[in-house]
Amino acid sequence: MNNIPVVKLGMIAVSRDCFVLSLSERRRAAIKEAYSGDIYECPVTVENEKDMLKAVADVQKAGCNALVVFLGNFGPETPETLIAERFDGPCMFVAAAEGDGDLINGRGDAYCGMLNCSYNLGMRHLKGYIPEYPVGTAEDIADMIADFVPIARAIIGVSHLKIITFGPRPQDFFACNAPIKGLYEIGVEIEENSELDLLVSYKEHANDPRIADVCKDMAEEMGEGKYYPELLERMAQFELTLLDWAEQHKGARDYVAFADKCWPAFPSEFGFEPCFVNSRLASRGIPVSCEVDIYGALSEYIGACVSGDAITLLDINNSVPKSMWEENIKGKFDYELTDTFMGFHCGNTPSCKMCDDRAIKYQLIQHRLLEPEGSDPDFTRGTLEGDIAPGEITFYRLQCDSDGNLRSYIAEGEVLPVATKSFGGIGIFAIHEMGRFYRHVLIQKRYPHHGAVAFGHHGKALFEVFKFLGVQDIAYNQPKSLPYPTENPFH
What we know:
By secondary structure, the chain is an alpha/beta fold. It is built from 16 helices and 18 strands.
């Protein structure tokens, strides 16, 4: 995934000048030893502002793009917080717990120092990531650092991201009509283009000498009998068009995501549905959201950074029939009927996240709409269809509401190993208390029908990323013991 940042961690220890300097240094070395990953240990211990400048210069020279600022003792409030101002990347602030038995010369008071550190960050309007409980032993802090890596990866990615769109957001799909003001507030750049720009570029890629190799790769990915051989060249041409556009239009940014209009004009003009190509790019960390869903693309990208894995974007689509629940779920899985729903899209989920029955097919709904009744599918072919593979998932979204405020939701659950007996890229999703979450978060807070899906339970990291980005409203599927503000207590 070369569209995802690689985190290069550095660690700077700080020390209050009236405390023993060596205490911070010994504790810093213990963290380095306890942490199983790669982390650069800055040799400069910060006691004052000049030390701060030296330390920041040192970690930048070492190529660090994320920092652990370690309070080995009480810490110098001004210099330690100015590290976050001077360093171009996310900074985590953690503090040492007492524990070596010496509470005279070996007491560091970092528990107290963390309070003043947080206070000073706020006074200076600086962002610092502080874990849920930021005080610990070397082993505790090593665990905090491991948790920080995916968070830092997402924060770096978002701050260097450009979202490229093609086509206007559809009139009747208000899922996609959200103010872009929120993008600029978190540092995301956007480039909006016409579908005609994409079509012109696509035509310019006709007979591209790389097409044959892409066709071969597509065929190998799907396997014989699971694709339309005569369609591969068109789809390969489109894949190269998007990849070249991304490279040529990154500008000052390092990473890209796409939000493309995929119907109704696309299939008839390009000669295929773009879903399979979109799925292939998503598997490489380059989300291509459907229906010009800009915040869907952003959500997908954040999930790709956090998980380090392929992601997808799905409609929160249809309820599970009661008969299917009774036959396949009730008594076998710990979910009520209202905990379940089907997540669906035409065929943009990466093949690596689908069951073995997946194949390139045609978009049934578009075929009804765009091609002659009773005819064989032609340009509505190109969807990647089949059941989504069972396993843990996180359903989430970052959205800008009609007032320009960023808000988000996160819900962990799973895809059940139950056949959907339906079409498209689809799966039976189960999330505890989904019925209440559906009513009092998704409906009550007016979220659109598109949700991003990360494969695995990544709610903890996503929550911290959204919090760091300044999102005030982070909703989740609350247990029965915790009613929603709008929930009727007499229900």
